[in-house]
Amino acid sequence: MNMKKIGIVGGGGYTAGELLRLLVRHPEVEITFVESGSQQGKAISEVHDDLTGETDLHFCGSAGARLSEVDAVFLCMGHGVSRGWVESHRPAKSLLVVDLSTDYRMDDSWVYGLPELNRARIQGARRIANPGCFATAIQLAVLPLARAGLVEGELHINGITGSTGAGQSPSPTTHFSWRNNNVSVYKAFDHQHLAEIGRSAAQAGRVATEGMHFLPVRGPFARGIFVTCYLDTDRPEEEVRQLFKDYYADAAFTHLTDQPVHLKQVVNTNKGLVHVEKHGGKLLVTTAIDNLLKGASGQAVQNMNLALGLGETLGLELKASMF
């Protein structure tokens, strides 16, 4: 078997840890290097200790000279850092680069890596901007409606996210004693992911440029995103459900379910679950994903699989646990 060789830049954080957990078990890839300036020389399992016994790799320093050795590189650096890395290293056009930051999500020269929207464009792409976690969960609710012309009016969105969505660097609002048994709203109506959501909705057919109202909430749990969206429509519930069924008929990981969804169904998986219900003239759409997998590293591996011509679900056959 011709194994694909993979590099990771910015290997010390949560998304890199999840990537490593997936890639060490992927049947058709081999990790060549994991770069981390802060962890250089340490064993990967010393930092990501869930990988104890699964890899003998160590973090390296600058791996720019080794880019010619790999077929794909994942950028797991902070927002605003990836663009500088790309400009200074100028990776070959033949090298697949998957960026997990915000830096290229609005850049037309990069493919926006949401398979439920851009699967055909992702196949064979060499520059992929991985979507944001909230953006992924919200778009799973919005895109079928946009395609059908049902979100031209006001759309109200509420989403609650786990603390890992804020990254590994500690802050007052990720400290356990603050986050535990607590909830709070942040960036009300002004979250950075609204830009990419609006752009994708326009690509799917939404004409309106305003009217999406998003309240993000910090949740008292580590991982997962739970989103509710509601809007006015006179379309019957079964008609709307059929729109979603048709939209996701060929999706590898996104599923419409008849039952209300909850986080334990998706945590530690690459699944996106969607539920639709009507209440009078109100349509309620609920979605749930794991922010570190379908909202970040799992989707990045899904994009790599598509771009490199591998099976879309390879390395992502993960199971949720209810306990």
UniProtKB/TrEMBL annotation:
InterPro entries, per database record: AGPR, AGPR_AS, AGPR_dimerisation_dom, AGPR_type-1, NAD(P)-bd_dom_sf, Semialdehyde_DH_NAD-bd
Pathway: Amino-acid biosynthesis; L-arginine biosynthesis; N(2)-acetyl-L-ornithine from L-glutamate: step 3/4
EC class of the enzyme, as a word: oxidoreductase
Its biological purpose: Catalyzes the NADPH-dependent reduction of N-acetyl-5-glutamyl phosphate to yield N-acetyl-L-glutamate 5-semialdehyde.
Reactions it catalyzes: N-acetyl-L-glutamate 5-semialdehyde + phosphate + NADP(+) = N-acetyl-L-glutamyl 5-phosphate + NADPH + H(+)
Enzyme Commission number, as recorded: 1.2.1.38
Protein name according to UniProt: N-acetyl-gamma-glutamyl-phosphate reductase
PANTHER family: N-ACETYL-GAMMA-GLUTAMYL-PHOSPHATE REDUCTASE, CHLOROPLASTIC-RELATED (PTHR32338:SF10), N-ACETYL-GAMMA-GLUTAMYL-PHOSPHATE REDUCTASE, CHLOROPLASTIC-RELATED-RELATED (PTHR32338)
UniProt key word Chaperone: no
Major location (coarse): cytoplasm
Localization in the cell: Cytoplasm
Domain of life: Bacteria
